[in-house]
């Protein structure tokens, strides 16, 4: 059977078995790596087809072995080009249903649209959960100011660390005793958090309303840390970034940037904007729904640099911008300064 938990919000059964299919390109396995890095306690292992060369390092096991170890769902850990479910995967997906696991997918292609999987789900009484399905009762954005505090990650481009930054900030705030919640806006974040809205599946007129629904009224001292999407400067995805900015009404935003990248990913004709330009544009546009919006600092993805080069770059950029600059995954005093800046309302 097909079950989405009501109103399009999937209720995910954990722990997971992570399915890597026949993946040979690590970049397509970002969902699997995200689950390993941020929800490792929810993952019992990985299941790969013989042709696969990519691994998360989780224990290798079959669906039956995973079920015996407590798994309740098999999650497709791949986000391939076009979000397709290849015919070569179907037998393995049926196998998971047959041993008693739900199937969870963040692909654009829908599990429920594959007859063999729909029939198997009915036969074995399991769920097909498609993450990229928006809530059915969304309203258009109102711009109404909501109670509570909000932080949004924004970027100079797509796919450079907005989710990881939001997760790192949320975890660090919780460690400080701050009442906070991570609000997921993409398929991997939803699998990590267990709830959220996949913004790339929302009809554009309702996108700002979806951002409002994602982060509702809260206690005055509660923080929602909202995963950003795309970039206001992206030639294809600026629309979703704008909707998230207006709908989430952030009190604070953090700019995410990969210093190893010069041009928009997949669009070499578009150079990346300077971080200062992103800060200025975000304030000008975001002030439409929250006049008090401000930048809390910058998160750099320094995975291409060694420790000394990364720390030196953070220092230079902090002096240039007059803001805390850190790499959240490296942590350290720079990250603590960013947190202090974000909380200083």
Automatic annotation (TrEMBL):
Organism whose genome encodes this protein: Croceicoccus naphthovorans
The name this protein goes by in its record: EBNA-1 nuclear protein
Domain named D-glutamate N-acetyltransferase-like N-terminal: residues: 55-134
UniProt-listed PANTHER family: DUF1611 DOMAIN-CONTAINING PROTEIN, GLL3100 PROTEIN
D-glutamate N-acetyltransferase-like C-terminal domain sequence ranges: 140-334
Superkingdom, natural source: Bacteria
Pfam family, one: DUF1611
């Amino acid at each position: 059977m097909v079950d989405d938990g009501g109103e399009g919000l999937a209720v995910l059964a954990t722990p997971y078995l992570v399915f890597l299919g026949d993946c040979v390109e690590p970049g397509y396995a970002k969902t699997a790596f995200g689950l390993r890095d941020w929800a490792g306690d929810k993952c019992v292992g990985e299941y790969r087809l013989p042709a696969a060369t990519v691994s998360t390092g989780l224990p290798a096991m079959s669906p039956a072995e995973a079920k015996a170890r407590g798994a309740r769902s098999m999650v497709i850990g791949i986000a391939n080009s076009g979000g397709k479910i290849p015919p070569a995967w179907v037998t393995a997906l049926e196998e998971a249903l047959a041993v008693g696991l739900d199937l969870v997918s963040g692909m654009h292609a829908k599990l429920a649209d594959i007859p063999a999987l729909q029939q198997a789900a009915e036969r074995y009484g399991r769920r097909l959960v498609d993450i990229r399905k928006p809530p059915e009762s969304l309203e258009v954005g109102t711009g109404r100011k909501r109670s509570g505090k909000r932080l949004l990650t924004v970027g100079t481009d797509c796919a450079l660390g907005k989710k990881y930054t939001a997760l790192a900030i949320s975890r660090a705030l919780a460690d400080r005793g701050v009442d906070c919640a991570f609000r997921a806006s993409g398929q991997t974040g939803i699998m990590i958090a267990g709830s959220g809205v996949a913004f790339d599946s929302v009809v554009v007129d309702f996108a700002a309303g979806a951002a409002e629904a994602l982060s509702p009224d809260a206690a005055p001292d509660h923080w929602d840390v909202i995963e950003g999407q795309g970039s206001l400067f992206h030639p294809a995805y600026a629309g979703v970034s704008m909707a998230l900015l207006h709908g989430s009404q952030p009190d604070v935003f953090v700019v995410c940037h990969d210093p190893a990248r010069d041009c928009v990913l997949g669009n070499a004709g578009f150079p990346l904007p300077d971080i200062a330009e992103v800060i200025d544009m975000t304030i000008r546009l975001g002030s439409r729904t929250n006049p008090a919006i401000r930048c809390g600092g910058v998160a750099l993805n320094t995975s291409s640099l060694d420790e000394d080069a990364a720390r030196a770059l953070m220092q230079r950029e902090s002096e240039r911008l007059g803001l805390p600059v850190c790499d959240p995954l490296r942590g350290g005093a720079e990250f603590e300064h960013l947190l202090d800046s974000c909380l200083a309302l």
